[in-house]
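Database export, one record per block. Field names are fixed; values are copied verbatim from the stored entry.
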Amino acid sequence: MANRLAILLSKLVEPFIGRDEEGKVIVLSLLAREHTVLIGEPGTAKSAMIRRVSELLNAHYFSYLLTRFTEPSELFGPIDIKALEEGRYVRLTSGKLPSAEIAFLDEIFKANSAILNALNTLLQERVLYDGYSEMAVPLWSLFGASNEVPEETELLAFYDRFLLRHFVRPVPENLWKELLDKAWTLEKAIYYGGARASEPVMDMRDLKKLHEAVLEVDLEPVKHKLVKLFAAFETRGIHVTDRRKGKALKVVASNALLEGRSRAQEQDLLALKYVVPRDWDELEKVNTILSEELKTPYRYLRELNEIRTNLQELLNYVISLQAVESRYIDQRFRQILRDVELTRERVSAMAMESQDAAVQRAVEEVLDLIEQIVSIIRRRLP
């Protein structure tokens, strides 16, 4: 079963460039049987990834774009007129949200109060209550998407219903070439052969068994550290509601299972970055606290990621100026050469300090960027 879980994650991210973390968040949400909101600009593959995972699980799927004018019947189904004539209030829910196991609602915070009230109960209790009837629904996980974090007071309780919050960034510049290649291949496939549904790799019964395995994960090794982290968050002005504190355990356990373990380790607490932050600013603070508090490769990977981003920008700068004849450029290149050699020393030291495989791969990528920069400058300078 663990192997099939790895296959699910691998197949989910396969068509997408730079979306490994989004894939992980989606799978964690499904393992925990919780709901997730994806915050980020349009065009970052949010809906496409949810649709794909539903196909890989052969799950009943529902998707809709919400506006303040959306009527409840558009989500929950129209009223059965014939039943109403007989004095019964019945919704025709086939193909609508009440029949879905996995759902995606875009622009979710733009819904009107009537829909938000119904969704509140649906998310919390998996029951649809619209004032006349009450219906248990098969919903496993609902994924919402929004361009921004809600600020309105009436939306905060609804926002808190989403245990996982992931802040989606555009694909970084170093992956743009791969993104273009993948997009072009997809366009041709759609034109010549039509879009094909993904072949299932498991079904919802398998997912239920995996969720049961999540609930059996031994969390005792990390509970003490988890309490210390919650205290650290509060000290830095990051409040975590009691509900989120308790439910965070399911995400930590899900991360352990995704890593192939039935016993949680300190590194599984990194999954708190999907639970604790309320907005982009808090995300940076939470990442900093986790980096400081946890004795894991995370702090190395975070620093290496920042170094890689800076070096990529520096490489682009050097490439753009390599043919420009200027004494000032020569001086600037000499300074860059000194700076990157210092960076090489720091990165090499990290490779010695951490023997983690992911850290070693990140180090190799950074050193390759450094070598490209140095090579260009060496060819120019005497």
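Remark 1: The mean pLDDT is 90.
Remark 2: The radius of gyration is 24 Å.
End of record.
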